[in-house]
Amino acid sequence: MNSSIWRTALRPLQNSQFRAPAALRHPTQTPSATPATPSTSASPFSTTATLQKRKKQGPTIDPRVTNIRYHLSHPLTPRPLHFSRTRYLRHWTIHRAWMLFLRKRRWAEERDLERQYQAMRAACEHLRCMDENGMEVPKSEAGGQGPDPGTLGPRGKEVGRLYRNAMIKRGVAGSVPVEYARAQVDFPSRDGWNHEWTRN
Amino acid sequence: MALRELPLRTAALTARDVRPVLNAVRPHSLRNASSAAAPAEVEPSSFEVPPPPPEAAQKFDPIARSKARQLKKNPLPPSRYQYRPPKYYRGPLHPHQPPPVSDPASRLFQPGPFSLPRLEQTYQSTIAADLLTLTYQHRPPGYRAPVVEQRLREWTGESPYFKNRPLRPPRGGSALRLLTPHRDFRNIPEIKKVVVHTMVPEAQEDSAHLHVAGMVVQAMTNVRVVAHRARSHVVQWGLKKDKYVAVTADVEREDTFHFLSKLIDVVLPKIKEWKGVAGTSGDGSGNISFGLTADQVAMFPEIEVNYDSYPPKMIPGCHITIHTSATNDQDAYLLLQSIGIPFYGKLKG
């Protein structure tokens, strides 16, 4: 991770090389006080350094993991804000205004949905009391009185046929096509391709 | 007739002559630009007090005053209001009450929102109205819904201990199922929050797995994660009790919509041969869950741009639970389908 620019801003270090904090370092990784002397070679008369048998090392820690641990354990959350009187009043005013704005917006959205709901309700009530000729019948003769909208009234099937059809909710569950969820964005354009474009 | 009109005419003539006088009596706020302004009434102000004499100003030494105050060990109070809200809420009767959540000094204060997500706008403008249309059930005027009685059973028997005993728990479970109210323009299902959960059993041996999983989930959701311990020993899964094995992130408010937008528009279309969310998902009360594998999690844009920072074998899979305000799974399916999450198989219910 190339974040050396702001890492130094967080923890000013002497060397530019990133080293893990002591608490995060594995004990086997810490350099010992007395480094192993190179004189323990197999042939003492040779000046050539021979490869020693590698000592048993502890599990090496991925530097990426060390980095992640470092950033996880350093909370950058600031302490809570304390405002003086003027700033507090300013904040309070803005907060009240924002709450009022939200309330008005919510109210407008709810009125919009209510208008739609009442329109659907009026339309369904109209269909319920309509006979085959499109004439309105008194509400006592219409069907659908109880919890079941398919209940027939005294005039039978000839009243409210469209209403009974509209109230069938059999195919509704899980009926939204995946194309419906297309994000509402300004692109691609309606024209798609400008066929008239030429290079001068 | 003319005699009767005489006083009226006299009054009209008098009024015509009187008009300029009435103009002069008008309030000053209605004056024209050409007419004279009223003399301003100045409130008594503290500036009218004469300034202190110059000798007093010359002799005034704030540093010496401050030092004298320090010697007397009676310094001025600090300029800032030193108040710390209580760390724990001790109940409504405790004299030390925390400030409201909207106060920046509160420990629960969350600034924002900082954005208006596209998904939220789409829900408000289109999806809510369409869901209302789709699930509308007509009730003729005068219809009265049957009242739901107490759904829990009482203890019936001869035993004297049954008297005043709490009601019996519901059959077949520890909690009652939610009741679905009549669909109204006020209770259209909406998205409440998203919970992202990752369980990493390897973290029992090496905590690096847990740390990497936490960082991955934080990067995905923009929410600080919470680590969880194993509740009990499970020998088959190699779980040891009280070891940290999982992290969760509760995504709320605007983060929900940002996370879902990324998931729906970026990650899910990139998954090869993905069938969708199982139609049997859901807990019966409107919360739908599904899972992503490790390589699918790596497709999140935050992980993808920074892929080299994570040890690739330690990137975890995750479970995503979408909490909706729907009270049954069918309404939740409709809502999630309308925001673009596909389902496969026969939908439950």
UniProtKB/TrEMBL annotation, chain A:
This is Uncharacterized protein. It comes from the Eukaryota. GO terms for biological process: mitochondrial translation. Residues 27-50 have a biased composition (Low complexity). InterPro entries: Ribosomal_mL40_fung (IPR042831). Residues 24-65, 136-156 are annotated as: Disordered. GO terms for cellular component: mitochondrion. GO terms for molecular function: structural constituent of ribosome.
Automatic annotation (TrEMBL), chain B:
Residues 21-112 are annotated as: Disordered. Keywords: Ribonucleoprotein, Ribosomal protein. Residues 33-48 have a biased composition (Low complexity). This is Ribosomal protein L5. Belongs to the universal ribosomal protein uL5 family. Gene3D superfamilies: 3.30.1440.10. It comes from Sporormia fimetaria CBS 119925. The keyword Ligase does not apply. It holds the Pfam family Ribosomal_L5. One of its GO terms (biological process) is translation. GO terms for molecular function: structural constituent of ribosome. Residues 187-240 form the Large ribosomal subunit protein uL5 N-terminal domain.
